[in-house]
Design goal:
single chain; mainly beta; OB fold (Dihydrolipoamide Acetyltransferase, E2P); 4-stranded antiparallel sheet
């Protein structure tokens, strides 16, 4: 059985999740917006770093997050 590589995506700054654009199991392309984070009254898109499938995603709009918290895991 082939084991897929994984890429963890973490929030670079603390803030509040404004929107979640994908769901677990979704196919994403490099540069696609996974979610939008509001921090210091600015909207910051969190982008997929590679093509793949969202293997883990546990976010909801309005959720408060810290820098280093997990956004998603992408398998490729």
């Amino acid at each position: 059985m082939l084991k897929l590589a994984q890429e963890k995506i973490e929030f670079p700054i603390p803030g509040k999740v404004l929107s979640v654009n994908v769901s677990q199991g979704s196919e994403v392309k490099e540069g696609e917006i996974i979610c939008t984070l509001e921090s210091m009254k600015m909207e910051n898109p969190i982008l997929a770093p590679c093509n793949g499938t969202i293997a883990k995603l546990d976010l909801s709009s309005g959720q408060v997050v810290e820098a280093g918290d997990l956004v998603a895991i992408i398998e490729y």
